[in-house]
Specification:
By secondary structure, the chain is an alpha/beta fold. The protein has helices at about 20-30, 45-55, 60-65, 100-110, 125-145, 170-185, 195-205, 215-220, 300-330, 330-335, 345-355, 360-365; strands at about 1-5, 30-35, 55-60, 70, 90-95, 115, 165-170, 185-190, 210-215, 230, 255-260, 280-285, 285-290, 335-340, 345. Helices cover about 30% and strands about 15% of the residues. Helix 1 packs parallel to helix 2 and helix 5 (about 125-145) packs across helix 6. It is built from twelve helices and 15 strands. Strands 3-2-1-4-5-6-14-15 form an eight-stranded mixed β-sheet, sandwiched between helices.
Length: about 400
């Protein structure tokens, strides 16, 4: 097959889905690789490096879309790309379909086969770790007096205490933020609804962190003493309530910082809206908000290396064995199937956008095959099925 590496065009996005190392593996498996010119330049990978790895350098995205069997990128497919996507073409990216109805409609209209990468990770995405760690550092940058923060130093100085930090959500993102902030001397409180995770983290950090159950009431109780709070909670998109309301921000001192790493829309933070690296901060009720949606893009080399390595097995599986066999052999890849030749196969998107859907197992006619299992990607459920697939 011919595989195309696209240059991401989302504002502030500098990562690339495959580095030259992955190109070598794909070529060695017998496939042809076309790489869009400068696709990896911002992440530190030259066109020459891609050529040496065996890729053909292509000037435009139009050429890649027109001639490649499968195309891949890091982030969503943008409006300018919609007309280029072809019927039966396999496309891979962090589509975030539930929050992007226009993108979903374009994918359905094209009758392509689309996989959303964020649902494909068995062990969590390197981007989540990167978002947590780098998000913590951006939070500290936002705390600086020159950026509108109240000017507290994370670990304090002799005679001046360090920062009180609250981390909501103890998954991969939250644990990444905790690792950085604890190492720099912040007094950290981790909040989650999973007592087992809280107990494990308390033991891991030998009792040097505080833990609390995460709900609106416990958050409100700790906000007056909190200098910085980081949201690392994957909030169910159908919920209409918030963990932190705009009114609750008044409990914090002016110049305190809120970093919304999860950046869902809608999400757990009422006052949150997406920002970009060129204008990352704004203030609501005296609290500095940092809400950049693609934080890992700021450390494009490291995140590209880690992310490309994790995505390579999925790419090779699709290229070597096809979509159907890939979905049989790996349940996480199967649950990442989002659109298939005009049919929606993503349950959360169906529920939130009120679109009919069909389970991948049903559409691919593999229900009676020995399938690799995987948990659902979210807790959101939909019974709005295409009539032709209701038995």
């Amino acid at each position: 097959m011919r595989f195309g590496i696209l240059k991401d065009i989302k504002p502030g996005e500098y990562r690339v889905i495959c580095t030259p190392v992955e190109v070598e593996s794909i070529v060695a498996a017998g496939h042809e690789v076309w790489a869009q010119k400068d696709c990896g330049k911002a992440a530190g990978f030259t066109n020459e490096a891609y050529k040496q790895a065996g890729a053909k350098i292509i000037d435009t995205a139009e050429e890649i879309y027109a001639h490649c069997d499968m195309v891949a990128k890091v982030k969503e497919f943008m409006e300018a790309e919609y007309p280029m996507i072809r019927e039966n073409q396999i496309v891979l990216g962090c589509i975030h379909p539930a929050g992007h109805p226009d993108e979903v409609q374009a994918l359905l209209d094209s009758r392509c086969i689309a996989f959303t990468a964020e649902d494909a990770h068995r062990y969590g995405s390197p981007n989540c770790e990167a978002a947590g760690k780098q998000g913590a550092l951006f939070g500290l940058e936002s705390m600086l007096t020159i950026n509108g923060g109240k000017g507290k130093y994370v670990g304090g100085f002799a005679g001046a205490p360090g920062m009180n930090v609250v981390i909501m959500g103890a998954g991969t993102v939250g644990q990444g933020a905790l690792q950085v902030l604890h190492a720099l001397g912040a007094k950290c409180t981790v909040m989650d609804i999973n007592v087992g995770i809280l107990r494990t983290l308390s033991n891991q950090y030998k009792g040097s962190i505080d833990t609390m159950f995460c709900n609106q009431q416990t958050i409100a109780s700790i906000l007056p003493e909190t200098d910085m709070i980081l949201n690392c909670v994957k909030w169910p998109k159908e919920r209409k309530d918030f963990l932190i309301t705009k009114e609750m921000l008044k409990l914090m001192e002016p110049g305190s910082v809120l970093v919304d790493i999860s950046n869902d829309d809608p999400g757990a933070i009422e006052s949150s809206h997406e920002t970009h690296h060129n204008d990352p901060r704004y203030v609501v009720n005296g609290v500095v908000h940092y809400c950049v949606s693609n934080i890992p893009g700021a450390v494009a080399n490291s995140t590209s290396v880690a992310y490309a390595a994790e995505m390579l097995p999925m790419i090779l599986s699709i290229l070597n064995e096809g979509v159907k066999t890939t979905c049989i052999k790996d349940g996480f890849y199967r649950r990442a199937l989002t659109c298939y030749k005009g049919y929606l196969t993503h349950e959360e998107t169906s529920a939130l956008q009120q679109r009919p859907w069909v389970r991948p197992e049903t559409l691919l006619d593999i229900e009676n095959v020995n399938l690799d299992p995987a948990p659902s990607a979210t807790v959101t459920r939909s019974n709005l099925f295409y009539p032709e697939f209701v038995k």
